[in-house]
C-alpha cells in the first residue's frame, strides 16, 4: 500500500509562496486535487513526484523522503501538464525512452504492455507530432505507467480533451484505482473531480482549504453565502424589507453603483422572498445578478470557512 504524506509542506519561489504549510495524506484509490488556477496544485504534484524539493516540511512515500530518492522514483509515475513530448519520436520510442531511463530489465516488453494498457498499440508507429490531444495524453500516460508504479500523479489530465477522450481516460484511471494504485489528479473543475475521485482535497492560494468526498465539498460550496447586486425602482425601501428577513445577513447601499449589495445566507429562502417582498411593496426589480459566482470566490469562501 503506497501512501504519499505531505507534512507541513511549504514551497516558495523568491517572494512567491506557492504552497503554504500543507499537510495531506494521499492513500490508495483516486484522489482529486481541486483548486483554481495558480492555487499551487502543480507545485504540490512536482514535490510529490520528486521534481522539486519542499522549502519546508517533508514529502514522503511510505515514510521515505521522496526528493533525490531513486527507490521512490521507481514507484512513482507522473503525467505532467506540459506538452513536453518529442514530436519526432513515434509513440513507441517515446514510451520506451522512459522504460530505458527507469533501467527496466526488459524495456521492450514493458513498452508494449504500457501501450496496450492505454490502447495505443495501433498508433505506436506514428510520430507523436501527428497525435491528437487525447492520444498525446494517452502516450504520456503509457510513459508514466511503463515501470508499473504504485503511485500515479496526473497534472490537469483532462485539459483540452473532448468528451470521448475524457470518458476513456476516466475509465482508465478508475481501473488504476481499483487495482489498488494511489492515483492523484489535479483539476480546477469540480464536476470533473466529482465524477472520478472518491476523495477530494481542495487547495486555494497555496493553502489546504477542505477535504472529503464530493458530497461534503459540494455542501461546503452551496452553503456559502451568496452575494447579489440588485437594482430596483426603490433600493432603499427594498433594503429595509430585506434587512428584516433572516435570509440575508449583510446589506449595503452602494451609491457609486446605484445598487443594493446583498449577502444571502439562506439561498432558497432568499430566492423566494425577494420577489415576494418587492411585489408586496410595489417595488420593481430591475437587476438581480450574482456578484461572486466566480470559482475564485467559491474557493476563497472555503478557505475562510
Ligand atoms: N518556478 C516558479 N517560479 C516562480 N513562481 C512560480 C514557479 N512555479 C510556480 N510559481 C507560482 O506559484 C504559484 C502556484 O503555481 P502552480 O503552478 O503550482 O499552481 P496551479 O494550481 O498548478 O495552477 P495552474 O493550474 O494554473 O498551473 C503561482 O503563483 C505561480 O505563479
Automatic annotation (TrEMBL):
Query: Could you confirm whether the keyword Kinase appears in this record?
Result: no
Q: Which GO terms describe its molecular function?
A: ATP binding
Q: Which Gene3D superfamilies match?
A: P-loop containing nucleotide triphosphate hydrolases (3.40.50.300)
State if Translocase is listed as a keyword.
Answer: no
Q: Which residues cross the membrane?
A: none
Which keywords label this protein? ATP-binding, Nucleotide-binding, Transport
- InterPro entries assigned: AAA+_ATPase (IPR003593), ABC_transporter-like_ATP-bd (IPR003439), ABC_transporter-like_CS (IPR017871), P-loop_NTPase (IPR027417)
Cite the ABC transporter domain residue spans from the record: 4-230
- By its UniProt entry, which Pfam families does this protein fall under? ABC_tran
Query: What PANTHER family does the record tag this protein with?
Result: ABC TRANSPORTER RELATED (PTHR43335:SF11), ABC TRANSPORTER, ATP-BINDING PROTEIN (PTHR43335)
UniProt similarity note = Belongs to the ABC transporter superfamily.
What is this protein called in UniProt? ABC transporter ATP-binding protein
Species assigned in the record: Streptomyces bohaiensis
Amino acid at each position: 500500500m503506497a501512501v504519499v504524506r505531505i507534512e507541513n509542506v511549504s514551497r516558495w519561489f523568491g517572494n512567491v509562496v506557492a504552497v503554504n504549510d500543507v499537510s495531506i495524506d494521499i492513500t490508495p484509490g483516486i484522489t482529486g486535487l481541486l483548486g483554481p488556477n495558480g492555487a499551487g496544485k502543480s507545485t504540490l504534484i512536482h514535490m510529490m513526484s520528486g521534481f522539486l524539493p519542499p522549502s519546508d516540511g517533508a514529502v514522503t512515500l511510505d515514510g521515505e523522503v521522496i526528493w533525490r530518492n531513486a527507490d521512490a522514483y521507481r514507484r512513482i509515475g507522473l503525467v505532467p501538464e506540459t506538452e513536453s513530448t518529442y514530436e519526432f519520436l513515434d509513440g513507441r520510442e517515446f514510451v520506451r525512452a522512459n522504460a530505458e531511463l527507469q533501467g527496466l530489465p526488459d524495456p521492450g516488453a514493458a513498452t508494449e504492455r504500457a501501450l496496450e494498457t492505454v490502447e495505443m498499440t495501433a498508433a505506436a508507429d506514428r510520430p507523436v507530432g501527428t497525435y491528437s490531444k487525447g492520444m498525446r495524453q494517452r502516450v504520456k500516460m503509457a510513459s508514466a505507467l511503463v515501470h508499473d508504479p504504485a503511485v500515479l500523479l496526473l497534472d490537469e489530465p483532462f485539459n483540452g480533451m473532448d468528451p470521448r477522450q475524457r470518458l476513456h481516460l476516466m475509465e482508465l484511471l478508475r481501473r488504476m484505482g481499483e487495482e489498488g494504485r494511489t492515483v492523484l489528479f489535479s483539476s480546477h473543475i469540480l464536476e470533473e473531480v466529482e465524477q472520478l475521485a472518491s476523495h477530494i482535497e481542495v487547495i486555494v492560494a497555496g493553502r489546504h482549504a477542505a477535504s472529503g468526498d464530493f458530497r461534503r465539498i459540494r455542501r461546503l460550496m452551496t452553503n456559502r453565502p451568496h452575494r447579489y447586486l440588485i437594482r430596483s425602482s426603490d433600493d432603499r425601501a427594498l433594503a429595509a424589507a430585506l434587512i428584516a428577513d433572516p435570509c440575508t445577513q449583510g446589506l449595503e447601499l452602494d451609491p457609486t453603483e446605484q445598487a443594493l449589495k446583498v449577502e444571502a445566507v439562506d439561498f432558497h429562502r432568499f430566492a423566494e422572498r425577494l420577489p415576494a417582498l418587492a411585489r408586496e411593496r410595489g417595488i420593481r426589480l430591475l437587476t438581480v445578478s450574482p456578484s461572486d459566482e466566480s470559482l475564485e470566490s467559491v474557493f476563497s469562501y472555503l478557505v475562510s470557512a
